[in-house]
Predict the structure.
Amino acid sequence: MPKSKLQLETQRLTPRAFMVGVHLTGDAYKQQHARLALDASMQELALLCETAGLEVVGETRQTLEGPNPNTYIGSGKVEELSAWQTALDFSVVVFDDELSPRHQRELEEALGEGILVLDRTAVILDIFAQHAQTREGALQVELAQYQYRLPRLTRQWTHLARQAGGGSGRSGNGGVGLRGPGEKQLEIDRRRIRERLSRLKDELDEVRAQRAQHRAQRRRNEVPVVAIVGYTNAGKSTLLNTLTNSNVLVENKLFATLDPTTRRVHLPGGHNVLFTDTVGFIQKLPTQLVAAFRATLEEITEADALLHVVDIMHPDHVAQAQTVLDTLTELGAGSKPMIIALNKADRLPKAEISGIEQPMPWSAAPGLLSEGVPISALRKTGMDALLKEIEVVLYEQMVPIRVRLPYKAGDLMALFRREGTVDSEVPEERSILLTGRIPSRLRDTFLPYEAKTAVKSEEVHP
């Protein structure tokens, strides 16, 4: 279990960490998705470390064409790290990129006993371990941690166990990177870990089946679902609270929300919609998390539309938005209908809160972002315009249809009237002829009843 604040305070000082960033220039790395610039990425890593409970005392950077096969960074930079450790007395080194097991092993041997080498993935997994509140969240985090640690079992676990104990003074790392299952099972062997992985996957398959049942129930009720997506800490939970007058946990921390929360909202036209808050995305999102959170991320892939929340005031909001779009594409949800909410737009230059629902120009929001709806989730402004835009995407992009429904199909008649628009109703002897428009997502439901021939005069007045 994560260490409590009280446990950390029993140590003399917060664990001290030193960050390492590498700018890779080789052709293989130029082909990667758009990333935050190194400056922004290192700032984000510092916030990740802080969220995990580490005190960042310094950083260093290096430009390389490709990673050193042994220590990721060059040998001269490793010697520089040792010098920095003597000067700053840190016990944790955190790399901005994911390290291979060999990189971690070679670096820890080079830096000496008492130094724990972590990468961005380990820190993110540690934060997830702290924030998992439900059984599902805990299962998903534990699965991701074991998948990450299994290839790294060649490391000296007793060496890590001594570090996990913390000790007095600044050599303790507070267990960061070792929370959850790792801290109490450092000496577990591969066979037992694989057995545990198998059980976790079985339990998560049960969770996945339960979620599928809930989604099927929502489908039977024909209530559309909008999944709220976005970069971590963009304001998704705050927006959900504002739209639904609820009290979902809101913290100014990365990954404060892990478990999806669903709330019902009435749209301006009288229709109902379900909003689902989801886990935030981040650049270099660990593949273990994407795999482990499959059950949760299905809320995104199965949604009728996506509400992409962008922190328009973040200096790298364009790169953040692209990271979200890239991740959605990897999940198979890149082509879903999307509404973009430009959060914190009230803080844009010359923006008047009273006029926030009017189109506002900004040079920093090119392409897709220029079509976003300016809002302030915290100040609760721009909500009417946002809900109207969501209604347009879900309902006003309807398809025309003409169906002949038997009188015994009262549920379908009610569904047509509730979710669509009726232009005419013609009673017949055994059925009713409805002409109008319905959301495209309901087309398959009514297709078997479609009336393709013209109505005869005697059918109009039975």
Remarks:
- The two ends are 72 Å apart (CA to CA).
